[in-house]
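Please fill in the sequence for the structure shown.

STRUCTURE ENCODING:
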């Protein structure tokens, strides 16, 4: 083995969506990052190895407007345009590209975290370095940094560091949750193996392997077989076992189940329309829903999610239902495969639930955050995990020079406000928290437009919000559109100052169609609601002018958030955005314009 000592500001263990977003957010905010991933691809349960579609607060589009913004929106928009054929391999490559494009990120694929060095300072454990091994190249690593994150799902780094955690389901008496059990147990949600199938022009036989599980109609009374292209999330099993130590046995049983269910579809005679369908791919890895949950200074609970709580230290949000499954999965045929308890509002996720209560410099994001089993049933979905990752990555970049002590304690007062405002600047959404960045020159400008609608006055581009605040989001939501809408195209929007200001960087936030779901899915049924291409609301072609002189021209934009950095800062009294075309609609929509005197 060849040994390497690497130094950075932030080490992230785990390359699912939470880890990718943590690494990219930290890097874009100036931190040097090492991202450790134990697989050959990034994306975790969203990758080509497992192929679960990414869902979140918009509940498969059933809560319009709540779709996550920030990095996950950037990735989804790019994927929709570059991958209309819905290839999971292309999604893998997009995530790889996003990470490799950041010069501040060192990516270690096929690399396992194997331990860490701990120092105790004033009674608080602190990680000083992480050890890792890449067997395929016979390399070992010691990774040094002031801050670390466990985004690994199963929590390998946190366990090695001695971070306090829990597993299983709490009792009602533990947190006063009425959806909890009367008596606590160690059971979790189960895991699933997904498969895809392809339609052919002729009948396709399927010989069920002898080792597959046999099924009859009683297994599907509460689990209807609908469609053959992508199956089936309810092929779930193993939560009654240890999803860590028993994972090989769980994997084998899930393969038996998947093959047995497909054999029933093809050979029972109950689904004659399945005749031309043949298996195209079956996962070799279980998509794991639950194992360890770390304990932070705050533990999220059922009551907080159902109340739509917005915390003082909110840095992310969720909105997926409380989605509870029987641990036995398909072995509980008389129980529904899930219970969806819809949440009336969006809820905040506090930073105190994203860091360890006994390891001072350890963040976490993903399914392993500080939440009860019932609350985790909502926070676990991947778009929510992604926005948590962006939150902790941004926190790590801003807090990398903090002295020893609990990292959550560093983010109070001005430091917390700075973190929240930086997240908003980077297109994150925080329930109930408005953009109040004093460095934004646009807040002091007069805003006019060539035309506007009654629902989209031009002045809304500087009102501090970057999406329509639908009333079901929470009591803080006012129901306004918070965007400029022109009446026609072409259209112009102009910011005017009383005196010339120095302009180096201009931020534009466009409408990307949050009323619809946007995700990569192998399901034809899900894809009918999704536009696989540029979103029609997006501004496509535009110019920026300072005092009437064009300083930037963009054709073919397909992103919601654009940051235009001028080659050299200029002084001007007037900034004009001239929109000439969108990707479909007949008017311009802009949520926000920011203007900064220095480049970030």
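FILLED IN BY: designer on duty
SEQUENCE:
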């Amino acid at each position: 083995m060849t040994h390497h000592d690497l130094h950075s500001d932030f080490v992230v263990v785990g390359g699912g969506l939470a880890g990718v977003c943590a690494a990219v957010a930290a890097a874009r905010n100036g931190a040097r990052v090492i991202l450790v991933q134990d697989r050959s691809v990034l994306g975790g349960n969203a990758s080509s190895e497992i192929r679960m579609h990414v869902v979140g607060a918009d509940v498969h589009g059933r809560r319009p407007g709540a779709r996550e913004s920030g990095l996950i929106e950037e990735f989804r928009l790019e994927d929709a345009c570059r991958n209309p054929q819905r290839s999971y391999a292309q999604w893998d490559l997009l995530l790889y590209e996003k990470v490799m494009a950041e010069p501040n990120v060192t990516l270690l694929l096929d690399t396992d975290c194997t331990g860490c060095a701990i120092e105790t300072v004033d009674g608080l454990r602190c990680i000083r370095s992480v050890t890792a091994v890449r067997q395929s190249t016979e390399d070992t690593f010691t990774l040094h940094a002031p801050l670390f994150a466990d985004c690994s799902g199963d929590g390998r780094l946190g366990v090695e560091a001695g971070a306090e955690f829990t597993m299983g389901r709490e009792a009602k008496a533990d947190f006063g949750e009425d959806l909890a059990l009367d008596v606590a147990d160690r059971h979790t949600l189960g895991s699933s193996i997904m498969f895809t199938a392809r339609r052919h022009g002729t009948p396709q036989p399927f010989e069920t392997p002898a080792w597959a599980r046999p099924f009859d109609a009683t297994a599907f009374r509460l689990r209807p077989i609908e469609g053959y292209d992508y199956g089936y999330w309810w092929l779930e099993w193993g939560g009654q076992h240890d999803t860590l130590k028993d994972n090989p046995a769980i994997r084998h049983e899930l393969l038996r189940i998947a093959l047995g269910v497909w054999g029933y579809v093809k050979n029972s005679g109950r689904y004659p329309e399945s005749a031309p369908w043949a298996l195209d791919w079956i996962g070799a890895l279980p998509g794991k829903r639950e194992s360890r949950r770390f304990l932070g200074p705050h533990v999220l609970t059922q009551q907080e999610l159902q109340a739509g709580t917005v915390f003082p230290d909110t840095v992310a949000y969720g909105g997926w239902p409380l989605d509870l499954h029987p641990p036995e999965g398909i072995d509980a045929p008389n129980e529904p495969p899930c219970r969806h308890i819809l949440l009336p509002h969006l809820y905040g996720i506090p930073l105190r639930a994203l860091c360890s209560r006994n390891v001072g410099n350890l963040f976490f994001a993903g399914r392993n955050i500080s939440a009860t089993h019932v609350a985790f049933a909502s926070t676990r979905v991947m778009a929510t995990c992604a926005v948590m990752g962006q939150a902790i990555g941004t926190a790590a970049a801003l807090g990398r020079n903090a002295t020893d002590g609990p990292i959550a304690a560093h983010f109070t007062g001005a430091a917390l406000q700075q973190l929240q405002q930086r997240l908003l600047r980077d297109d994150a959404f925080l329930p109930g928290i408005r953009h109040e960045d004093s460095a934004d020159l646009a807040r002091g400008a007069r805003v006019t437009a060539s035309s506007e609608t009654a629902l989209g006055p031009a002045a809304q581009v500087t009102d501090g919000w970057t999406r329509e605040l639908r009333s079901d989001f929470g009591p803080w939501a006012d129901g306004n559109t918070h965007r400029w809408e022109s009446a026609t195209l072409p259209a112009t929007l102009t910011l005017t100052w009383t005196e010339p200001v120095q302009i180096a960087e201009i931020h534009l936030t466009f409408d990307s169609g949050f009323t619809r779901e946007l995700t990569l899915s192998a399901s034809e049924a899900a894809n009918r609601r999704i536009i696989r291409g540029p979103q029609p609301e997006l501004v496509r072609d535009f110019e920026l002018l300072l005092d009437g002189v064009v300083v930037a021209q963009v054709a073919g934009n397909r992103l919601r958030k654009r940051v235009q950095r001028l080659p050299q800062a200029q002084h001007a009294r007037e900034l004009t955005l001239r929109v000439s075309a969108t990707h479909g609609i007949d008017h311009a929509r802009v949520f926000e314009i920011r203007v900064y005197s220095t480049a970030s």
